[in-house]
Design a protein that fits this description.
Rossmann fold; globular; seven-stranded parallel beta sheet; 35% helix
Length: 183
């Protein structure tokens, strides 16, 4: 069974796989969950910014959930060229929002970009896998994972996860969006 199977049907419960969500696409999600493997932290920042901007144009509100450290710094640098709100220090905005694990709890966004899921899992906020679960389940329509580190095995092995190339990930996602609208 897919780690991502279930939320698109409205089942927001925990999956049997190590406490990760049964599906992270959100209720009625027209887009499959996607993953983009970037070469390094700097590339993670650039890919995240381009993808988040495209998702905001196509879907609406976007949360970029980034861990602290190198990945978070790279995302901040990448987002410098994108109109966004830094909700870690200020208010949420209508488009792209940079959030951390404390801000994202209890909120929903049209799309979510989870940066370095393995790093978020390693943080173990609230003492377990719940932080990654929270990040993965904040989207109502679209989910993307952007990473340089290996994905957690449960996510990496999931057949529902569509892999996009780092070069042109935003265009590849736009093609998926067009396919979803046509269907």
């Amino acid at each position: 069974m897919s780690v991502f199977h279930g939320l698109s049907a409205g089942n927001n419960g925990h999956a049997p796989i190590a406490g990760l969500p049964a599906d992270a696409s959100g209720p009625g999600a027209p887009w499959p969950p996607v993953a983009v493997h970037a070469a390094d932290a700097a590339a993670v920042g650039a890919v995240t910014a381009a993808l988040a901007a495209r998702m905001a144009a196509d879907v609406g509100s976007v949360a970029v959930v980034a861990p602290p450290g190198d990945a978070g710094a790279a995302v901040r640098a990448g987002l410098a060229g994108v109109d966004h709100a830094d909700a870690t220090t200020g208010a949420l905005g209508p488009g792209v929002n940079l959030v951390d694990m404390h801000v994202v709890k209890g909120l929903e966004f049209d799309a979510v970009v989870v940066v370095e899921p393995a790093a978020i899992l390693a943080l173990r906020p609230d003492g377990g896998r719940g932080g990654l679960y929270t990040a993965l389940t904040r989207s109502t329509r679209a989910l993307a994972l952007v990473h340089a580190r290996a994905l957690p095995p449960e996510l990496d092995a999931d057949p529902a996860l569509v892999r996009l190339p780092a070069a042109g990930a935003n265009a590849a996602w736009a093609a998926l969006a067009q396919d979803a609208r046509a269907a």
